Amino acid sequence: MRYILLLTIVVLATACGSDTKNLSQAKGVPGDLYIVMDSAQRKGKIGTLLDSILGTDMAGLPRKESIFKLHWVDARRLNYILKERRNMIYVMTLDQRTQGASIIRAQFTPQSIKMIQSDPSLFMFTATNVNARGQEVAYLFGSDEATLAANLRKQGSKLVSYFDIKERERLGVFLFKSGTVKGVSDILEKKFQCTMKIPFGYKLVDYTDDFLWVRQSNPRDDKILFIARKPYASQTDFSIDNLIKFRDDVCRKNLFADPDDPESYLLTETSVPYIPVTADTINFNGRFAIQLRGLFKSHTPGLGGPFHGYAVVDEKTQQFFYIEGFTISPSRDQREIIRELETILFTFRTSSEIAAEKAPAP
User: Fold this and answer.
1) What is the pLDDT of the chain when averaged over all its residues?
2) pLDDT 10s digits, 109-148
3) Which of 25, 66, 68, 319 is the most buried (most CB within 10 A)?
């Protein structure tokens, strides 16, 4: 019921979003976020807090790159061009009486204003196709600045996850528009009892009984994905030390900076204190997983970069899978490359998930 009532918060927005045929395509660069708020709040507590939440660096990159590029817009200067940006956030608290705050407040119905005043737990509403097709919009609000700030401190990660997932969804549509690499899905399903969609443009390099890797290489960057597996032993397989050991064993055996030099194998970089390897519990397509992020290097000096990997178990076959994407792109920003690799990795499915997807509808 609360969610249904929240739909009344932006009546004008949902009215526009219900029919997209007359809307222009949303514009902007992947990873860009436009934040519309009163200029006074931008310089105050709320602006500082949003800057720290949304401007956080993507973990595991060799150089500082925030997960989003933030663009701050004074509500008084909002025009139809800015309204069509692909990712937008509107921020408003009821205790502000400035012109900018009033402009944003005008999007809220009287009923929604009463809800905000009576329920301090409400602070965010999201909508799609508001002023443009493919646009994602979040509305942040509170009865006063202190209430909104408290909610953002507790649940600001939801805002980050929302736009991160939406960017991956958009990227997935683009990546798989031209199809997938023929044959890889068959190999994975028959030999590994799993599957993962590999976009056209990547090439199958090699595979064994427990390892498969694909690659897309061009003059600007090198993008590599691999799948490795072993019999599942216990929950300790998910510990960061055991994950690094398994990753290094796989790389030592299969991945080399120079194919003709067996001493040029890749391994996890653990000696950079300001970019540590991290292992975080996440929801991976509805199942438990550990996300491993950090840097790799070659055993012989000269090669390195960031990697993002995921460890999951197929309960049906009792196989432990580690899937990873990494890039060699020393002269480029790497945020969007990693986001592309993550988008592909999230198409991974175990045998039980494949069976569920193939099962006839009841």
Assistant:
1) 91
2) 888 899 899 999 999 999 999 999 999 999 999 999 999 9
3) 68
* 3 state SS of 50: helix
The region of weakest confidence among 53-62, 199-208, 256-265 is 256-265
Nearest to 251 by CA among 287, 291, 295, 202: 295
pLDDT exceeds 90 at position 173: yes
Helix axes 335-345, 145-175, angle to 10 degrees: 70
For tokens 């960057």, the residue is 221
Reading the block at residue 107, the tokens are 């999007």
Give just the sign of the alpha carbon dihedral 63, 32, 138, 40. positive
- Residue 53: phi and psi, rounded to 5, are -80, -50
Domains of the chain: residue spans and CATH: 2-175 (3.40.50), 184-358 (3.40.1000.10)
Burial class for 223, CB neighbours closer than 10 Å (0-12, 13-18, 19+)? buried
What pLDDT is stored for residue 9 in this prediction?
A: 53
Could you give the strand order of the β-sheet that contains 69-74, starting from the edge strand earlier in sequence? Answer: 69-74, 32-37, 87-93, 136-142, 124-128
How many angstroms separate the CA atoms of 229 and 192, rounded? Answer: 8
Amino acid at 190: K
Output phi, psi for 40, to 5 deg: -65, -40
268 backbone dihedrals φ, ψ, rounded to 5°: -75, 135
Task: Please state, in angstroms and rounded to a whole number, the distance separating the CA atoms of residues 48 and 297.
Answer: 36
Length of the chain: 362
- pLDDT number for residue 348: 97
Please state, in angstroms and as integers, the Cα–Cα distance from residue 120 to each residue in 45, 93, 94, 116, 145, following that order.
18, 11, 12, 6, 11
In the predicted structure, residue 62 carries a pLDDT above the cut 60: yes
- Give burial (CB, 10 Å; 0-12/13-18/19+) of 309: buried
What does 69-90 look like in DSSP terms, one character per residue? EEEEEEGGG--TTGGGBSEEEE
Judge whether residue 177 has pLDDT over 90: yes
